[in-house]
């Protein structure tokens, strides 16, 4: 399919403004019922909230390695309100980034194929050359982690450093930079990988699994009473 940014916006601008922001329509049952084939690898990540200290070394490493412009971010660490009473006050730190869903709504709604799931790694990525800036993927993402890159003028997000560190045989920049080893990355199809073993050994949860997105970002809960989901 060939569709330039200019031609698409000229021919479908009205549609974008009338339907592009309707998340409920984009996330309908029929859309999420579609299945996506798994490749030889399914890269995923675990964020261990019990080890995260909120230093944001991961966000800075991501910005440097992937040349992310100021004002936008592929990765955020969000700090909770204080938990407990002085002097025993604690905080929970949560990672906000692309979930690399096996059943990704952003991929299903993209009219040009710019949003895609890499068949070799399972990583959800963006082809900037095909992106026409329609905003469908931003509206469809239930995690609200996509943004428009102010320099490339295309949709952008975390790609597990697929075009940078992974291409060089390294782990994602955020994983390499974490001083407490709160991030574990690997192949979920390999039962012996560190990430697969960790998911088996510790209680984990995933965000918004009820939507059928099948996210591949797992989290070890900081608080008590949370269960594997």
TrEMBL record:
Q: Provide a Gene Ontology MF annotation, just one.
A: nitrite reductase (cytochrome, ammonia-forming) activity
Query: What keywords are assigned to this protein?
Result: 4Fe-4S, Iron, Iron-sulfur, Metal-binding, Oxidoreductase
Q: State the top-level EC class.
A: oxidoreductase
E.C. no: 1.7.2.2
Iron as a keyword?
yes
Which InterPro entries does the record cross-reference, listed alphabetically? Answer: 4Fe4S_Fe-S-bd, 4Fe4S_Fe_S_CS, Cyt_c_NO2Rdtase_NrfC, ET_IronSulfur_Cluster-Binding, TAT_signal
Which segments constitute the 4Fe-4S ferredoxin-type domain?
43-71, 85-120, 122-151
Pfam families found in the cross-reference section: Fer4_11
Task: Return the PANTHER family for the record.
Answer: PROTEIN NRFC, PROTEIN NRFC HOMOLOG
Protein name in the entry = Cytochrome c nitrite reductase Fe-S protein
**Biological source species:** Photobacterium alginatilyticum
What is the organism lineage in this UniProt record? Bacteria, Pseudomonadati, Pseudomonadota, Gammaproteobacteria, Vibrionales
